[in-house]
Amino acid sequence: MKIRVLQVGAIGTNCYLLEDEHTNLAAVVDPGDQADRILAQAQADGVELKLILLTHAHYDHTTGVAGIHKALPHIPVYLHPADIARLGTPVFPALGMDPTPYDDGDVVKVGDIDVQVLHTPGHTPGGVCLMAGDALFTGDTLFQGSMGRTDLPGGSYEEIMASLARLARLPGDFQVLPGHMGMSTLEAERKNNYYMREAVG
Length: 201
Description:
The chain is an alpha/beta fold. It has helices at residues 35-45, 59-62, 65-71, 81-84, 157-168, 186-192, 194-200; strands at 2-8, 13-20, 25-29, 48-53, 77-79, 100-101, 107-110, 113-119, 128-132, 135-139, 142-143, 146-147, 175-178, 184-185.
C-alpha cells in the first residue's frame, strides 16, 4: 500500500492517492481541485484510478470530482447519504453526477486493500473517516492538534465530540491523514489534542 499526498486548491486541501502496489489500482480521497494534476500524478505513478472516496461534501474536498469523472466516467464516487441529501445547497455544491452511498461499517475495495468506513458526523452530517491498513483518513473531523469547524450548515459540536471520542477508542495506533495541515498519529492526538482529550473526558 502506497499513499501519495497532493495539496490542491486555494486553501491547500490534502488530497490522497491510495495505491495498491500489487494490482496497480488506486482510489483518490477528497479531490478538492486540480483534477488534471491528480490524473497526471496517477499516470506518473503507474496506477489506474478505480474509485473516488469523499470524506464529506464541502467544495474544498469535491471541486476536482467533475474533472476526474469527465475523464473517467465509469468510476463511482462514494459519499455518505447524509451529505448526499444536502448536495446543491450552500457549502455543499452539486457534484454533477449521482454519487454511490456508503455508510458506517461498509468496506470498499481498492485492489486488494480493504477500506472501512466510519461515520464521524459533526463537521458535516455525513462526514466519514476511512481506515485502510494503519492509515486513517480523517477528512475534516480530526486535524493535527485540532478538529474541524462546526459552525457551518449541518455542523454539530456535540456530534464531532462524539466522533472524536470514537476515534480515540480505536484499538492501536494509526497514521492520521487529515483534510488540511500536517500528518500525525492517533496516539499523538490522544495525548496532545485538546479537543480529543475533552471528548474522552
